[in-house]
Amino acid sequence: MPHSPSTSSKSHVDPDQSKKYDGDTEVLPIRRALVSVYDKTGLDRLATALKAAGIVAVSTGGTARALEGYGVSVEDVSSVTGFPEILDGRVKTLHPNIFAGILARGDREDDLEVLAEHGIDRFELVVVNLYPFASVISRDGCTADDAIELIDIGGPSLVRAAAKNHAFSAVVTDPDQYDAAAAAISRGGTTLVERRLFAAQAFERTAEYDAVIAHWMAGHAGLIAGEAKPISSEHHPDAPPLPTRLTLSLERRLPLRYGENPHQSAAMYAPADTHFGLAGLKQLSGKELSYNNLLDLDAAVRIAGLIQNSGAAVIKHTNPCGAASAATIDEALEAAMAADPTSAFGSIVAVNRVFDAAAAECLLKPGMFVEVIAAPAFTAEAVEALKTRPPWKASVRLVEVPPGDPWGPTAGLELRSVAGAMLAQRPDETPDDPAAWQVVTHEAPAKDLTQPLDFAFTMVRRLTSNAIAVCQGTSLVGAGVGQTSRVDAVRIALEKAGDRARGSVLASDAFFPFPDSIDFIRQAGVAAIIQPGGSKRDPEVIAAANAAKLPMVFTSRRHFRH
């Protein structure tokens, strides 16, 4: 049988409670606290303050037992609600006797009269942390039922109620806040400034919590794309629709000295509990990373990640000035650095395998200098060599970037800010399908050019449009990037490649709008062209390639990157 609320505890209205606490430094006494925490870390520190101040804690379950163990006077939630826990603990605190005690306005006589009429006591402090939904869903073998059961209902409701009524109730949501709360309790109560801060942090916490759940539920409902599969069409009729609303909760992960320029303040933010990609980077040594370092690092890691075999990428101003695939990381790095040694000085380097001592030796040659080296992991020998031998040893940043899907927290979307808004798209990281490519010229590329063509079309997707990539084997030897004219991009890429253009392959990220580029490509001795096709002048371009006896492949898939 449900039982009546306890009337043994204080249920009268203290005259001071009708006073509005609107001074920033005026102290609001704490007489009664509601404490319900999943994470018991640091609870002893808070309990010491509660006990010393003689504050009664209303609690239940494991929290109540822990508080009693620390000598705190505890009143069971059921004695306040007059109702036992039901539905396996799903319903404990969702009751008017709890929420009225939190939401009553201390400067409203009518609110206080209602409390007195129903024998309800106020709470001046609410201490709640939430079920660990994010950590549960990250566990191997987590089922949908496991996740759903850990969606906290009562906790966020208590937190939001106390945060809303922060003029008269303090809310604590994290063990990191216990010392501040304990100091306030020992002082005799909280100030409005403290309660505002706690409330702001509480709403940040519930927003973050709901964002994680919303993202998981979108995946559970099939609104987020699964693992990428090779496709040959630009249209994706089977892909799930983009979400109608995208809720993000970002925490400041890395303060930065400044942004792109010294007069711009900057920081790196990431969704909480996200530890893939740059969100999970671990810096092993060197100076602090800058805003521009991170932009280049992102480009380096992403292009290295597109290479199937051992690969290395050398980045300058977000574009690769060298990239290569080889049997080993040191061979790939050697080829990538040799592609454009002038641009490689002061560059960002990334590899897609463990960075070992042999790879370190490639960068320890006289005249070499790089800003950042990124890898999934470094051997101890490589770290020791790079930290002790080169003259730039104190400057170079060694960064471990964990592999894994970095797009999960953003519903599988790549985000980019524009003035007042965000652009969102599926990342251009789905592998191409060479089986769908079409030779459109009379002559087909030699069989030994199949792998270089695939590599070149992989490289060009990470160059800034208009983009041209010239590759000798599986090494990028020339790139034309960011040009307003495609023929200019061709000229620049061939000039960078020099004599290495002879016998190479050339990739374009989009179609050739005119046949004017073909003659430059022929004169340089390029052996084959790969491009998406799709221009209304494709027949003219094909005719020019046939006249030049240049094999050309159409992929029917564009790789613009603005």
Describe the structure.
The protein is α/β, with parallel strands linked by helices and 562 residues long. It folds into 3 domains: 15-217, Methylglyoxal synthase-like domain (Rossmann fold); 275-400, Cytidine Deaminase, domain 2, CATH 3.40.140.20; 436-554, Cytidine Deaminase, domain 2, CATH 3.40.140. The chain contains 19 helices and 23 strands. The strands form 5 sheets. A 12-stranded mixed β-sheet has the order 10-15-14-13-11-12-20-19-21-22-23-18, sandwiched between helices. Strands 4-3-2-5-6 form a 5-stranded parallel β-sheet, with helices on both faces. Helix 1 (43-53) packs parallel to helix 9 (178-187), helix 14 packs parallel to helix 15 (380-388) and helix 17 (486-497) packs parallel to helix 18 (516-523). The longest helix is centred in the middle third of the chain and has 29 residues, at 192-220.
